[in-house]
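Board notes, transcribed. Complex of a protein with N-oxalylglycine.
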Amino acid sequence: MDGLTTLDAQGVVAPLTFMEPMAEKPFSYNYEPPSGTVLRNARPQTRQVKIIDARQFADRLSLDREGFVLLHRPTAAKSLYDEDEITRVYYPECERLIAEATGAVRVHAFDHIVRNAALSAKGNQIKQPATRVHNDYTAWSAPQRVRDLMGAEAEELLRHRYAEINVWRPIRGPLLASPLALCDAQTLAEENLIASDLLYRDRKGEIYSVTYNPGQCWYYFPKMQADEAVLIRCFDSAPHGAARFSAHGAFDDPETPLDAPPRESIEVRALVFFKD
Ligand code: OGA
Ligand code: FE
């Protein structure tokens, strides 16, 4: 996107939810916290941000530079609400798609989230869109995930380049409500990435919460269809060149029609291993 003036590029001005800067380490419980403990200690900070339509540059985006790409790729999965279909049909598709897009020698899909505001309820697995801007993995949790999931092979795999990439797709299109905003990784400063604990009953995860910086450039793909997917590179161990992290979060698009259905989406997480 170099050389393009983004000032007059098509897009919307919309609120994005960042984290208010704070002194303590942020945490968030993924289950009912012990009595007397708050669910999360970080406060949101909403900023109006220009979010540029990235469709006009879609053919020039790169996972190594901006940290996200748009692909046109239908899925053979009959229902993305069917857990068995997701792991049996959709995971292998995502693995192939990532291998083709990156040249990786091995891809291991390991987790997914289905989001639908109308169906999400206590006790089921379906979630709401995630409005707080974040990055899924940190310099600590990315290698930790490799160790958790790859067993005896982990240490050998960690000696080579590896990444964590999400495949994000609407379940139904056109996606009109709560689109996903994506930060150009080249404009994301490490000082705005705040390591934050995610507390599960059986383990601790770590993500980056993100504080606002006027230097960040934000993008989205309006009206995504179910045969389109965005790859989001959340972590890359390659220390040179490419930014190693990215950031994303859902937002309320002022152009969403009042009668638009709630957003339905699925994201699959994958560990990605390279030869070099
Ligand atoms: C993700 C993610 C948020 C959303 O795909 O990692 O955070 O609202 N998605 O879809
Ligand atoms: Fe995420």
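Residues 115, 129-130, 136, 166, 168, 180, 248, 250, 265, 267 surround N-oxalylglycine (ligand 1) (CB under 6 Å). The longest strand covers residues 106-116.
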